[in-house]
Amino acid sequence: MNRPSLPNTPIYHHSIKYSGASTLSKIRKIQERLKDKNVDFYFFSSLDEIAWLFNIRSSDVDFTPLVIAYALIGKQDIYFFCDKKRFTPPVITDFDANNVFIKNYDEVITYLSEITYNKKTIVDFSTLNYESFVNLKGILISEKSYAKTLKSVKNITEIEGSKRCMIKDGVALTKFFIWLEKKLCKNVVSEYEIGQKLNYFRQQQDLYKGESFATIVGYKKNGAIIHYTATKDNCLLVKNENILLLDSGAQYEDGTTDITRTIWLGGTPCKKITTAYTAVLKGYIGLEQLVFPRGTTGVQLDAFARAPLWKNGLDYPHGTGHGIGSFGMVHEPDQGFASTTVTERGTSSHFENQLTTIEPGLYISGEFGIRIENIVLSKIQKTSSFGIFLEFEPLTLCYIDTTLINANLLTINEKNWLNAYHSKVYQTLSPLLTKEENIWLAKKCTKIN
Q1: Model pTM?
Q2: For labelling, which of 119, 258, 378, 413 has a CA lying 20 to 30 Å from the CA of 211?
Q3: Nearest partner of 54 among 278, 328, 346, 438, judged by Cα
Q4: Which of the four pLDDT bands, split at 50, 70 and 90, describes residue 1?
Protein backbone atom coordinates (compact mmCIF):
# COMPACT_ATOMS: atom_id res chain seq x y z
CA MET A 1 0.00 0.00 0.00
CA ASN A 2 1.13 3.56 -0.72
CA ARG A 3 -0.66 5.06 2.25
CA PRO A 4 1.07 8.30 3.34
CA SER A 5 2.56 8.47 6.81
CA LEU A 6 0.73 10.31 9.57
CA PRO A 7 1.46 14.06 9.81
CA ASN A 8 4.04 15.24 12.33
CA THR A 9 3.49 19.00 12.20
CA PRO A 10 2.87 20.79 15.53
CA ILE A 11 -0.62 20.89 17.02
CA TYR A 12 -1.27 24.26 18.60
CA HIS A 13 -3.89 25.74 20.90
CA HIS A 14 -6.63 27.86 19.33
CA SER A 15 -6.83 30.64 21.90
CA ILE A 16 -10.08 31.53 23.60
CA LYS A 17 -9.30 35.02 22.30
CA TYR A 18 -10.48 33.71 18.92
CA SER A 19 -12.58 30.65 19.82
CA GLY A 20 -14.68 32.45 22.43
CA ALA A 21 -15.22 29.30 24.48
CA SER A 22 -12.94 27.09 26.56
CA THR A 23 -12.26 23.43 25.85
CA LEU A 24 -13.85 22.54 29.18
CA SER A 25 -17.08 24.40 28.42
CA LYS A 26 -17.46 22.49 25.14
CA ILE A 27 -16.67 19.11 26.69
CA ARG A 28 -19.15 19.79 29.50
CA LYS A 29 -21.94 20.22 26.92
CA ILE A 30 -21.12 16.81 25.45
CA GLN A 31 -21.04 15.24 28.91
CA GLU A 32 -24.41 16.80 29.74
CA ARG A 33 -25.73 15.20 26.58
CA LEU A 34 -24.46 11.81 27.79
CA LYS A 35 -26.23 12.21 31.10
CA ASP A 36 -29.48 13.29 29.45
CA LYS A 37 -29.37 10.25 27.15
CA ASN A 38 -28.10 7.89 29.88
CA VAL A 39 -25.18 6.91 27.66
CA ASP A 40 -21.56 6.17 28.61
CA PHE A 41 -19.52 7.63 25.73
CA TYR A 42 -19.63 9.93 22.73
CA PHE A 43 -17.22 8.95 19.93
CA PHE A 44 -15.92 11.58 17.50
CA SER A 45 -14.21 10.79 14.20
CA SER A 46 -15.00 13.97 12.24
CA LEU A 47 -11.87 16.13 12.22
CA ASP A 48 -13.61 19.51 12.18
CA GLU A 49 -15.65 18.58 15.24
CA ILE A 50 -12.54 17.36 17.08
CA ALA A 51 -10.63 20.57 16.28
CA TRP A 52 -13.56 22.68 17.50
CA LEU A 53 -14.23 20.67 20.66
CA PHE A 54 -10.63 20.66 21.86
CA ASN A 55 -9.62 24.12 20.58
CA ILE A 56 -6.72 22.77 18.54
CA ARG A 57 -5.45 23.49 15.05
CA SER A 58 -2.73 22.15 12.73
CA SER A 59 -2.13 21.61 9.01
CA ASP A 60 -2.98 17.95 8.47
CA VAL A 61 -5.51 18.73 5.72
CA ASP A 62 -4.89 21.04 2.75
CA PHE A 63 -6.46 24.49 3.17
CA THR A 64 -8.09 23.49 6.47
CA PRO A 65 -6.41 23.73 9.93
CA LEU A 66 -7.45 20.29 11.16
CA VAL A 67 -5.79 17.50 13.13
CA ILE A 68 -5.99 13.81 12.22
CA ALA A 69 -7.25 12.28 15.45
CA TYR A 70 -10.09 10.49 17.24
CA ALA A 71 -11.79 11.43 20.48
CA LEU A 72 -13.84 9.45 22.99
CA ILE A 73 -15.65 11.53 25.59
CA GLY A 74 -17.12 9.82 28.64
CA LYS A 75 -19.01 11.16 31.63
CA GLN A 76 -15.67 11.38 33.45
CA ASP A 77 -12.80 10.08 31.29
CA ILE A 78 -11.80 11.71 28.01
CA TYR A 79 -9.46 10.03 25.51
CA PHE A 80 -7.71 11.76 22.63
CA PHE A 81 -5.92 9.61 20.03
CA CYS A 82 -2.98 11.35 18.37
CA ASP A 83 0.83 11.41 18.56
CA LYS A 84 1.63 13.24 21.82
CA LYS A 85 4.97 14.47 20.46
CA ARG A 86 3.08 16.78 18.11
CA PHE A 87 1.42 18.82 20.87
CA THR A 88 2.77 22.24 21.79
CA PRO A 89 3.03 23.05 25.54
CA PRO A 90 -0.16 25.18 25.70
CA VAL A 91 -2.19 22.23 24.36
CA ILE A 92 -0.66 19.82 26.89
CA THR A 93 -1.45 22.29 29.67
CA ASP A 94 -5.04 22.65 28.49
CA PHE A 95 -5.52 18.89 28.13
CA ASP A 96 -4.02 18.15 31.55
CA ALA A 97 -6.29 20.74 33.18
CA ASN A 98 -9.32 19.07 31.62
CA ASN A 99 -8.27 15.45 32.33
CA VAL A 100 -7.86 14.57 28.67
CA PHE A 101 -5.76 11.40 28.29
CA ILE A 102 -3.63 11.46 25.15
CA LYS A 103 -3.07 8.07 23.51
CA ASN A 104 -1.21 7.25 20.31
CA TYR A 105 -3.28 7.38 17.15
CA ASP A 106 -2.69 3.70 16.34
CA GLU A 107 -3.96 2.66 19.78
CA VAL A 108 -7.51 3.76 19.06
CA ILE A 109 -8.70 0.32 17.95
CA THR A 110 -7.41 -1.41 21.09
CA TYR A 111 -8.83 1.20 23.43
CA LEU A 112 -12.20 1.32 21.70
CA SER A 113 -12.55 -2.46 22.05
CA GLU A 114 -11.65 -2.41 25.74
CA ILE A 115 -13.26 0.80 26.98
CA THR A 116 -16.59 0.55 25.16
CA TYR A 117 -17.18 -3.14 25.91
CA ASN A 118 -20.76 -3.53 27.22
CA LYS A 119 -21.13 0.27 27.21
CA LYS A 120 -23.49 2.60 25.35
CA THR A 121 -21.78 4.90 22.86
CA ILE A 122 -23.28 7.66 20.71
CA VAL A 123 -21.87 7.83 17.17
CA ASP A 124 -22.70 9.76 14.02
CA PHE A 125 -22.90 7.08 11.34
CA SER A 126 -22.57 9.68 8.58
CA THR A 127 -18.92 10.24 9.56
CA LEU A 128 -18.00 6.92 11.22
CA ASN A 129 -15.46 4.75 9.38
CA TYR A 130 -15.74 0.98 9.18
CA GLU A 131 -12.69 0.18 11.32
CA SER A 132 -14.07 2.20 14.21
CA PHE A 133 -17.52 0.71 13.72
CA VAL A 134 -16.37 -2.89 14.13
CA ASN A 135 -14.27 -2.07 17.20
CA LEU A 136 -16.89 -0.18 19.17
CA LYS A 137 -17.98 -3.23 21.14
CA GLY A 138 -20.97 -2.02 23.11
CA ILE A 139 -24.37 -0.70 22.11
CA LEU A 140 -24.15 1.96 19.42
CA ILE A 141 -26.68 4.78 19.41
CA SER A 142 -26.99 6.73 16.17
CA GLU A 143 -27.27 10.52 16.44
CA LYS A 144 -26.34 13.44 14.26
CA SER A 145 -23.26 14.79 15.98
CA TYR A 146 -24.16 17.15 18.78
CA ALA A 147 -20.82 18.92 18.27
CA LYS A 148 -21.82 19.65 14.68
CA THR A 149 -25.00 21.31 15.89
CA LEU A 150 -23.20 23.30 18.60
CA LYS A 151 -20.41 24.37 16.27
CA SER A 152 -22.74 25.73 13.61
CA VAL A 153 -24.04 28.44 15.96
CA LYS A 154 -21.27 30.99 16.44
CA ASN A 155 -20.60 32.82 19.68
CA ILE A 156 -20.03 36.58 19.91
CA THR A 157 -16.24 36.21 19.69
CA GLU A 158 -16.46 34.09 16.54
CA ILE A 159 -18.92 36.50 14.93
CA GLU A 160 -16.76 39.53 15.68
CA GLY A 161 -13.73 37.64 14.38
CA SER A 162 -15.56 36.87 11.16
CA LYS A 163 -16.46 40.54 10.72
CA ARG A 164 -12.79 41.51 11.17
CA CYS A 165 -11.81 38.92 8.57
CA MET A 166 -14.26 40.35 6.07
CA ILE A 167 -12.70 43.78 6.48
CA LYS A 168 -9.20 42.36 5.98
CA ASP A 169 -10.38 40.36 2.98
CA GLY A 170 -12.11 43.43 1.55
CA VAL A 171 -8.91 45.47 1.76
CA ALA A 172 -6.90 42.68 0.11
CA LEU A 173 -9.47 42.25 -2.66
CA THR A 174 -9.63 45.99 -3.34
CA LYS A 175 -5.85 46.19 -3.70
CA PHE A 176 -5.88 43.08 -5.87
CA PHE A 177 -8.56 44.33 -8.27
CA ILE A 178 -6.70 47.64 -8.64
CA TRP A 179 -3.53 45.69 -9.46
CA LEU A 180 -5.38 43.53 -12.00
CA GLU A 181 -6.94 46.53 -13.73
CA LYS A 182 -3.56 48.27 -14.08
CA LYS A 183 -1.83 45.06 -15.18
CA LEU A 184 -4.32 44.36 -17.96
CA CYS A 185 -3.99 47.88 -19.34
CA LYS A 186 -0.49 46.99 -20.53
CA ASN A 187 -0.11 43.22 -20.43
CA VAL A 188 -1.84 39.87 -20.46
CA VAL A 189 -1.70 37.76 -17.31
CA SER A 190 -2.40 34.07 -16.78
CA GLU A 191 -5.26 32.72 -14.68
CA TYR A 192 -2.64 31.03 -12.52
CA GLU A 193 -0.73 34.25 -11.86
CA ILE A 194 -3.97 36.02 -10.94
CA GLY A 195 -4.64 33.42 -8.25
CA GLN A 196 -1.10 33.75 -6.91
CA LYS A 197 -1.31 37.54 -6.80
CA LEU A 198 -4.63 37.49 -4.94
CA ASN A 199 -3.05 35.23 -2.33
CA TYR A 200 -0.12 37.68 -2.07
CA PHE A 201 -2.44 40.56 -1.12
CA ARG A 202 -4.15 38.42 1.50
CA GLN A 203 -0.79 37.44 2.97
CA GLN A 204 -0.27 41.08 3.94
CA GLN A 205 -3.25 40.95 6.31
CA ASP A 206 -3.04 40.33 10.05
CA LEU A 207 -3.43 36.73 11.31
CA TYR A 208 -3.39 35.27 7.78
CA LYS A 209 -2.85 31.48 7.79
CA GLY A 210 -3.38 30.47 4.16
CA GLU A 211 -6.02 29.93 1.50
CA SER A 212 -9.27 28.29 2.57
CA PHE A 213 -9.49 26.37 -0.73
CA ALA A 214 -7.79 26.31 -4.11
CA THR A 215 -8.61 29.63 -5.79
CA ILE A 216 -10.86 29.41 -8.84
CA VAL A 217 -9.89 31.85 -11.60
CA GLY A 218 -12.02 31.17 -14.66
CA TYR A 219 -11.64 33.38 -17.73
CA LYS A 220 -14.33 33.25 -20.40
CA LYS A 221 -15.27 29.58 -21.01
CA ASN A 222 -13.27 28.37 -17.98
CA GLY A 223 -15.67 30.25 -15.72
CA ALA A 224 -18.32 27.71 -16.72
CA ILE A 225 -16.26 24.91 -15.08
CA ILE A 226 -17.64 25.13 -11.55
CA HIS A 227 -14.61 23.69 -9.70
CA TYR A 228 -11.96 24.75 -12.20
CA THR A 229 -8.36 25.04 -11.01
CA ALA A 230 -5.79 26.80 -13.18
CA THR A 231 -2.29 25.36 -13.13
CA LYS A 232 0.92 27.09 -14.14
CA ASP A 233 1.24 24.99 -17.28
CA ASN A 234 -2.44 24.69 -18.19
CA CYS A 235 -4.43 27.90 -18.05
CA LEU A 236 -5.71 30.74 -20.20
CA LEU A 237 -4.08 34.11 -20.69
CA VAL A 238 -6.40 36.86 -19.49
CA LYS A 239 -6.75 39.97 -21.63
CA ASN A 240 -8.34 43.36 -21.06
CA GLU A 241 -11.63 42.09 -22.46
CA ASN A 242 -14.59 39.86 -21.68
CA ILE A 243 -15.58 38.14 -18.42
CA LEU A 244 -13.69 36.70 -15.43
CA LEU A 245 -14.98 34.64 -12.48
CA LEU A 246 -13.00 34.64 -9.22
CA ASP A 247 -13.91 32.34 -6.31
CA SER A 248 -11.47 32.48 -3.40
CA GLY A 249 -11.10 32.51 0.35
CA ALA A 250 -8.63 32.69 3.20
CA GLN A 251 -7.96 31.26 6.63
CA TYR A 252 -7.26 33.79 9.34
CA GLU A 253 -6.72 32.90 12.97
CA ASP A 254 -9.94 34.78 13.78
CA GLY A 255 -12.07 33.39 10.95
CA THR A 256 -12.57 31.93 7.48
CA THR A 257 -13.62 33.71 4.28
CA ASP A 258 -15.15 32.66 0.97
CA ILE A 259 -16.19 35.08 -1.78
CA THR A 260 -17.00 34.97 -5.49
CA ARG A 261 -17.07 37.93 -7.83
CA THR A 262 -17.63 38.01 -11.58
CA ILE A 263 -16.19 41.06 -13.33
CA TRP A 264 -16.16 42.52 -16.84
CA LEU A 265 -12.67 43.33 -18.09
CA GLY A 266 -13.33 45.34 -21.24
CA GLY A 267 -15.47 45.82 -24.33
CA THR A 268 -19.26 45.84 -24.31
CA PRO A 269 -21.03 42.90 -22.65
CA CYS A 270 -23.75 41.31 -24.77
CA LYS A 271 -27.42 41.13 -23.75
CA LYS A 272 -27.12 37.40 -23.01
CA ILE A 273 -24.45 38.03 -20.36
CA THR A 274 -26.04 41.12 -18.77
CA THR A 275 -29.43 39.39 -18.54
CA ALA A 276 -27.85 36.34 -16.93
CA TYR A 277 -25.70 38.37 -14.53
CA THR A 278 -28.64 40.51 -13.46
CA ALA A 279 -30.75 37.41 -12.84
CA VAL A 280 -28.00 35.96 -10.64
CA LEU A 281 -27.77 39.24 -8.70
CA LYS A 282 -31.57 39.37 -8.29
CA GLY A 283 -31.44 35.81 -6.95
CA TYR A 284 -28.77 36.73 -4.42
CA ILE A 285 -30.70 39.80 -3.23
CA GLY A 286 -33.96 37.85 -3.09
CA LEU A 287 -32.59 35.24 -0.71
CA GLU A 288 -30.51 37.63 1.34
CA GLN A 289 -33.46 39.96 1.98
CA LEU A 290 -35.77 37.16 3.01
CA VAL A 291 -37.39 37.11 6.48
CA PHE A 292 -38.26 33.55 7.51
CA PRO A 293 -39.25 31.45 10.53
CA ARG A 294 -36.47 30.10 12.73
CA GLY A 295 -35.88 26.44 11.86
CA THR A 296 -36.70 26.79 8.16
CA THR A 297 -34.76 24.23 6.13
CA GLY A 298 -32.34 24.88 3.29
CA VAL A 299 -34.58 23.31 0.67
CA GLN A 300 -37.40 25.69 1.63
CA LEU A 301 -35.15 28.74 1.16
CA ASP A 302 -33.17 27.68 -1.91
CA ALA A 303 -35.86 28.48 -4.48
CA PHE A 304 -35.83 32.20 -3.62
CA ALA A 305 -32.34 32.48 -5.15
CA ARG A 306 -33.28 30.49 -8.26
CA ALA A 307 -36.61 32.16 -9.05
CA PRO A 308 -35.20 35.06 -11.19
CA LEU A 309 -33.16 32.54 -13.19
CA TRP A 310 -36.12 30.19 -13.62
CA LYS A 311 -38.12 33.06 -15.11
CA ASN A 312 -35.52 33.15 -17.89
CA GLY A 313 -35.41 29.36 -18.31
CA LEU A 314 -32.06 29.22 -16.50
CA ASP A 315 -30.68 27.36 -13.46
CA TYR A 316 -27.43 26.20 -11.86
CA PRO A 317 -26.31 22.66 -10.88
CA HIS A 318 -25.13 23.25 -7.30
CA GLY A 319 -26.45 24.25 -3.91
CA THR A 320 -27.00 27.93 -3.26
CA GLY A 321 -24.81 28.05 -0.16
CA HIS A 322 -23.11 26.27 2.70
CA GLY A 323 -22.14 26.82 6.31
CA ILE A 324 -18.69 28.23 7.01
CA GLY A 325 -16.38 27.67 9.98
CA SER A 326 -14.44 29.94 12.28
CA PHE A 327 -10.82 29.26 11.33
CA GLY A 328 -12.12 25.86 10.29
CA MET A 329 -13.75 24.25 7.29
CA VAL A 330 -14.76 26.57 4.48
CA HIS A 331 -17.61 24.12 3.76
CA GLU A 332 -18.91 23.44 7.25
CA PRO A 333 -21.90 21.19 7.85
CA ASP A 334 -24.67 21.35 8.24
CA GLN A 335 -26.89 24.32 7.33
CA GLY A 336 -27.00 25.77 3.85
CA PHE A 337 -29.27 25.96 0.80
CA ALA A 338 -29.97 23.13 -1.63
CA SER A 339 -32.69 22.40 -4.17
CA THR A 340 -33.16 18.85 -2.91
CA THR A 341 -33.58 17.11 0.44
CA VAL A 342 -31.02 14.52 -0.62
CA THR A 343 -28.19 16.69 0.70
CA GLU A 344 -27.59 17.63 4.32
CA ARG A 345 -27.86 21.30 3.40
CA GLY A 346 -31.37 20.68 2.13
CA THR A 347 -32.70 19.07 5.30
CA SER A 348 -30.90 21.08 7.98
CA SER A 349 -32.58 23.98 9.73
CA HIS A 350 -31.41 27.59 9.98
CA PHE A 351 -30.95 29.27 13.34
CA GLU A 352 -29.66 32.64 14.50
CA ASN A 353 -25.90 33.31 14.66
CA GLN A 354 -24.94 30.94 11.87
CA LEU A 355 -22.53 31.89 9.08
CA THR A 356 -23.65 30.77 5.62
CA THR A 357 -22.77 31.62 2.03
CA ILE A 358 -25.28 32.72 -0.58
CA GLU A 359 -23.88 31.98 -4.03
CA PRO A 360 -26.26 31.64 -6.99
CA GLY A 361 -24.69 31.33 -10.43
CA LEU A 362 -25.08 30.45 -14.09
CA TYR A 363 -22.77 28.45 -16.35
CA ILE A 364 -22.96 28.28 -20.14
CA SER A 365 -20.57 25.55 -21.29
CA GLY A 366 -17.90 26.76 -23.69
CA GLU A 367 -18.86 30.43 -23.16
CA PHE A 368 -18.83 31.89 -19.63
CA GLY A 369 -19.61 31.43 -15.96
CA ILE A 370 -21.24 33.81 -13.48
CA ARG A 371 -21.42 33.58 -9.70
CA ILE A 372 -21.93 36.13 -6.92
CA GLU A 373 -21.17 35.02 -3.37
CA ASN A 374 -21.22 36.65 0.04
CA ILE A 375 -21.05 35.26 3.56
CA VAL A 376 -24.11 36.21 5.59
CA LEU A 377 -24.93 36.11 9.30
CA SER A 378 -28.39 34.93 10.37
CA LYS A 379 -30.00 37.19 12.97
CA ILE A 380 -33.30 37.49 14.80
CA GLN A 381 -35.44 40.01 12.90
CA LYS A 382 -38.63 39.88 14.96
CA THR A 383 -40.62 37.79 17.40
CA SER A 384 -44.38 37.43 17.10
CA SER A 385 -47.15 35.11 18.26
CA PHE A 386 -46.10 32.90 15.34
CA GLY A 387 -42.56 32.48 16.64
CA ILE A 388 -39.07 33.81 15.98
CA PHE A 389 -38.25 35.15 12.50
CA LEU A 390 -34.74 35.49 11.09
CA GLU A 391 -32.98 37.64 8.50
CA PHE A 392 -29.52 37.72 6.93
CA GLU A 393 -26.83 40.36 7.30
CA PRO A 394 -24.12 40.40 4.61
CA LEU A 395 -20.62 40.34 6.11
CA THR A 396 -18.51 40.13 2.94
CA LEU A 397 -17.14 43.51 1.88
CA CYS A 398 -16.28 43.79 -1.81
CA TYR A 399 -17.86 45.74 -4.65
CA ILE A 400 -20.25 44.01 -7.06
CA ASP A 401 -19.46 44.85 -10.68
CA THR A 402 -22.24 47.12 -11.97
CA THR A 403 -20.87 47.07 -15.55
CA LEU A 404 -22.63 43.75 -16.08
CA ILE A 405 -25.99 44.86 -14.67
CA ASN A 406 -29.03 45.65 -16.80
CA ALA A 407 -30.50 48.22 -14.42
CA ASN A 408 -33.84 48.10 -16.23
CA LEU A 409 -34.33 44.58 -14.88
CA LEU A 410 -33.85 45.61 -11.23
CA THR A 411 -36.69 46.77 -9.01
CA ILE A 412 -36.39 49.92 -6.92
CA ASN A 413 -35.97 47.73 -3.85
CA GLU A 414 -33.12 45.80 -5.50
CA LYS A 415 -31.38 49.04 -6.56
CA ASN A 416 -31.73 50.36 -3.01
CA TRP A 417 -30.20 47.15 -1.65
CA LEU A 418 -27.23 47.39 -4.03
CA ASN A 419 -26.64 51.07 -3.27
CA ALA A 420 -26.83 50.45 0.49
CA TYR A 421 -24.45 47.51 0.20
CA HIS A 422 -21.94 49.53 -1.80
CA SER A 423 -22.19 52.38 0.71
CA LYS A 424 -21.37 49.91 3.49
CA VAL A 425 -18.42 48.53 1.51
CA TYR A 426 -16.99 51.98 0.88
CA GLN A 427 -17.59 53.40 4.37
CA THR A 428 -16.01 50.35 6.02
CA LEU A 429 -12.97 49.93 3.78
CA SER A 430 -12.08 53.51 2.86
CA PRO A 431 -10.31 54.40 6.16
CA LEU A 432 -7.90 51.52 5.49
CA LEU A 433 -7.03 52.51 1.90
CA THR A 434 -4.77 55.06 0.27
CA LYS A 435 -6.18 58.16 -1.43
CA GLU A 436 -5.75 56.57 -4.86
CA GLU A 437 -7.44 53.36 -3.71
CA ASN A 438 -10.30 55.36 -2.22
CA ILE A 439 -10.95 57.13 -5.51
CA TRP A 440 -10.98 53.79 -7.34
CA LEU A 441 -13.34 52.13 -4.84
CA ALA A 442 -15.69 55.12 -4.78
CA LYS A 443 -16.08 54.78 -8.54
CA LYS A 444 -16.84 51.07 -8.25
CA CYS A 445 -19.43 51.80 -5.55
CA THR A 446 -21.21 54.59 -7.43
CA LYS A 447 -24.98 54.51 -6.97
CA ILE A 448 -27.14 53.19 -9.77
CA ASN A 449 -30.50 54.73 -10.67
Answers
A1: 0.96
A2: 378
A3: 328
A4: low
